[in-house]
Design a protein that fits this description.
12% helix, 3 helices, OB fold (Dihydrolipoamide Acetyltransferase, E2P), 276 residues, 5-stranded antiparallel beta sheet, elongated, 4 domains
Length: 276
Amino acid sequence: MLDLGVYKKLKILRDTDPGLFLGDEDGNEVLLPNRYAPQLFDIGDEIEVFVYLDNEERIIATTDKPYIERGGFALLRCNEVSKHGAFLDWGLVKELFCPFKEQVFKMKPGGWYLVHCYLDERTNRLAASSRTNKFLDNSNLTVDKFDEVNVIISHPSDLGMNVIVNNKHRGFIYQKDIYSELNVGDRLKGVVKKVRSDNKLDIVLGQIGYKSIEPNAQKILDALQDNDGHLALHDKSDPEAIKDTLEMSKKSFKKAIGTLYKARQIRIEPDGIYLV
């Protein structure tokens, strides 16, 4: 049986009245209805399709591109609510079902909701869940400090924004690192600023342009946090004082604090630098 909810490259086996029959190397076959068939093709050609269940619960293939695939996250519009759950527009003829038990808040027609697409093992149907956190795991991280990552804005909190990192992990952007309006469902590039002892990820948006000196910048930030947000050092300080305190050259120190200042992470005063 072909996996549902994913893209597959399948070979065209034969042309029939309902459409093209496609197959994989394991002998699995699926129908690509005429409405999705290419105008020009040869038997044996490979074609990339999305496989899912149609309105009659039959496995079919389509060349339409859904807004979400199995294992992914996307912001989808609720079209209708029945006594069993909500039906979401995911760009295909058959809508994506979200049962009530998988809704954080009861969905309403016309509303937009960030959901995860999963395969219900009991029914073998694709379904959606707005309980996105249960599909994320930080116990075994696949990212490290300073890695560039893909970020989806999940939901706000008093301190900032919860985010989904690389479709796998939970992350957080603190309010002080947010410089523009963010909306649930936004997809952005980010960088892992810090990996905490409990594997929580602190994320900053955009690309860190000072990656080559980032260890020094982070070292200064760590030292500031360990000293109540203040270091009695600045660009006029004695090189030996900088070396004794931070174990870096004055040149590296000046480049690092310049970057941190531009990023509005520190302020420079006559008596030293302060954490913003």
